[in-house]
Amino acid sequence: MGSRSKINLAYIAGFLDGDGSLMMQIKKRKDGNKSGKRFMLTICFYQDSRHDKTLSWIRNLLGIGYISKRNDGITELRINGFKQIEKILKNLLPFIKFKKIQANLLFESSKILQKKHSLKNTDLRKLVNNIYRIQSENYATKKKKTKEELFKILDLTP
Question: How far, in whole angstroms, is CA 100 from its chain's centroid?
């Protein structure tokens, strides 16, 4: 990897540390999946819509994601997908400073979720613990689900 690439990755990691978020959620499915649930991993960058060219630059450099303008004057670059999250975080982790815990947990979760076989209860419990730890590290304006509520969603009893 050239020095220019490292500089770009360091810039993106710094942007993520300051104006980004790393999220992991359990979402409802409507596609006939037997559990009716799916895990969703997200890296999101936020920027005032007047200065959103930086998000296009990041998207072009990473080669993935979608940009959307919100009604509150903020533009978002969102990236989803287990393999994509793993690849991006592998490159950004050496440069991330303030969101290192969330990044490592999301990276670990992306590896678990890429397993070819169905997830075991131990995998699901690990994922729930990771969701809870990521949520507790993130700044949140509304109450998130407790660990017990997440276990119940996945039909895992203590």
Answer: 12
